[in-house]
Amino acid sequence: MNSANALPAPSLRSPVAHPLVWLLALCLAHVVARVAVSPALKWDEAEQILWTQHLAWGYGAQPPLYTWLQWGMNQVFGPSVLSLSLLKHGLLALTYALMYLAGRELLGPRGAWWASASMLLLPALGWYSVRDQTHTILVTAMTGGAWWLLFRIVRRPRPLDFAWLGLICACGVLAKYSFVMVIGAMLLAALSVAESRRALLSRGWWLAPLVGVLVVAPHALWLFQHLHEATAGTLSKMQIQPERGLVKGLIALVDGLAGMLALFALVALWAFRKAWWKKPVAPAVPWAQRVLWRYLALTLLALLGMVVVAGVTSFKGRWLLPLLCVVPLAAFAARPELQEHPRAGRYTGAIVAIALVLLLAAGVRPWFSGARGDTDELNHAARALAGQLMAHGYDRRSPIIAADHMLGGMLRTRFPQAEVYACNADEQDVARCVARLTARAQAGGEGWLLISRADRLEPHWWSTVLAAIGPQNRQVIELPFRMVRAGTPLAHYDYVWHPAARQP
Q1: Of residues 22 and 290, more confidently modeled
Q2: Contact, 295 vs 185, CB < 8 A?
Q3: pLDDT surpasses 50 at 82
């Protein structure tokens, strides 16, 4: 958009007037809400608490960057709900900020804010990231950063920006492997447009791949050594079924795309109505518009190829989010005149209203689950369980072996001095896992705590475990779930506490 047509920038004398301030305030409000609502953990949160006990070059199917950042946060705030929430919502704030900066390269402050805030209307970011996502948030932030730097480079190529682009892309790969698709589609789209091609091939271009390769190389070496471990889980979730996957895959893809974009499309159509169908004045920046639409076309072709060629039959919103988070920016860059439309305030108001609804929903979700009698993981009484375990002799520092990640992570936040493990029947040989960990504890002169929760316990878990380690004095703790209706069955925990042998 030409500077003559851009909306006036907010006054620096009034920082509160900056469009980003309210998005940052929203993220802070979510931190407060999450800390207040429950000391228990969702699955991805618990996974991070367990993984951050040790630094590694990779963590199963996930690259390491998010866990490294969470480890650093834990060093300051401890393994806690606060540290989890600060990192997650800090990265969400970064996502909004980077997409806003990308938008400012093409639009005025209002349009850039729309491009950023409209991501709230993408359920994978606006809702599911608040509920229980980690790596997806980081990779989406890096997507916004990559677009911002691409636009900066085309406007004014500088070697330093090429280096920054390489670092951002490397961080994206270290956040989630799917970022390779973002890089590929973005690069092909940019090279297909004359203006962006000249800029990307200008002086200093080689810094981008050099920095990217150097940053990714150590993890890449680990990845090649653990290829099956890193890919097996993801391939399973994609439900690859070449023999009968075409129709199922196409339906899943359409459903995934609709679920991702429907709310944004409906709100935008409601706000601006027929203005979308009028002949546009002109794209904000013609070359950028061509790059954006070609990128989206290439992304769609790649997704179709995954269905047709690879037989993929499952597309989750969190997989599509990094690829599609740029859709609002592309839409408003194509219609820059909407920034001055008489109904512009209606669209802004709709985003604000939905943001407040999502904040309220995040705060009441355990109450809602409890009112239905369908207890959520956040309904577990973490503090009461920790108190009961100590009352029955647990010493707060002996290793804990849990039957699932959520329980293990929850107990780790209550007993930060203890090493905590999860022997999950979905992921490993339970008998071998428990036998190895109990033997290690005994060899080190430590006690050990073995524990499960009835609401997520694999059949025969205890019989399998006890067959491996021998008969044990198995005990029970029953506690009321938090924030539930009267008559809800109690939370049931089975445990074995094996104290350390007394020294002679």
Answers
A1: 290
A2: yes
A3: yes
Contact yes or no for 411/451 (Cβ under 8 A): yes
Query: Could you tell me if residue 362 is inside a domain?
Result: no
Distance CA 295, CA 182 (A): 9
Give the C-alpha separation, 248 to 277, whole Å.
33
Would you say 492 and 390 are in contact if contact means Cβ atoms under 8 Å apart? no
The model's pLDDT over 305-328, given as tens digits with 9 standing for 90+, comes to: 988 887 888 888 888 999 999 999
Domain boundary among 340, 368, 394: 340
Dihedral of alpha carbons 81, 84, 88, 91, sign: positive
pLDDT band at 351 (very low <50, low <70, confident <90, very high): very high
pLDDT per residue as tens digits for the range 438-496: 999 999 999 999 999 998 898 899 999 999 999 999 999 999 999 998 888 999 999 99
In terms of phi and psi (left: phi > 0; alpha: psi -120 to 50; beta: otherwise), the region of 239 is: left
Residues near 405 by beta carbon (within 8 Å), at least 6 away in sequence: 43, 46, 47, 50, 422, 424
Query: Are 198 and 96 found together in one domain?
Result: yes
Q: Are 413 and 49 in contact (CB under 8 A)?
A: yes
Q: Tokens standing for 302?
A: 């790649």
Q: How many domains does the chain have?
A: 2
Which pairs with CB-CB distance under 8 Å and at least 24 residues apart come from 233-237? 233/60, 233/61, 234/61, 234/177, 237/314, 237/316
Domain, as residue range, for 431:
380-498
